[in-house]
Amino acid sequence: MLSVKGLSSGYGRARVLFDVSFDVEPGRLVCVMGRNGVGKTTLLNTVMGVLPATAGTVTFEGKDVTRLRPHERVRLGLGYVPQGHETFPQLSVMGNLLVTLEASPHKDHAAIEEALEVFPRLKPLLKKRAGFLSGGQQQQLAMARALVTRPKLLILDEPTEGIQPSIILEIEEAIEGLHTSGLAVLLVEQYLDLALRLADRFIILDAGHVVHSGTAEELRGEEVHRLLAV
Q1: The pTM is what?
Q2: Facing residues of 154 across strands?
Q3: Alpha helix locations (H) across 119-206?
């Protein structure tokens, strides 16, 4: 479904990613792991077109999307939830969902109900401004907004970061349910135990390079723990 080949990118003259290659097959959950600062967020931003690639290609469902803008990739079926629980804070929960729906290619209001079924905690909060939600509720809203676009591949950048434990469990259950339903997921996650429970495959970045990849079972190796140690 998603094929990344020889991808390099960075910020100005500072290169962060070097010749990164991996695939996400339909219905699979691939977890990107590594220490802080190794290029995980840069990788997702480049896959989404937020950052331009300086080399390599990003192909989605057989189409080269390397030079497409982020909203064009969304229309093709890429859904992105960046770090930071990003919402429109002055809009209500429903307002956030409606704005996203208006920008989506299908504009089917049933998509909002479908997203709320995944995150039922949001249902009694529909009239509340997003800026007054807890961090965990804002993260659920950010994910629900991505689901409103009905993505074929959902890209999540550390969805459990800074979230209270009870909501982490709800987010994990939501991701597992979406994956079980057949949605492909590309996930950046720091918690090894969570990655072990969710991922089919993984890649580990170090200094902008892919240094290890394989099945979830291989995440248990001693070398893997060394690469993930702070």
Answers
A1: 0.93
A2: 79, 185
A3: 135-148, 165-180, 192-198
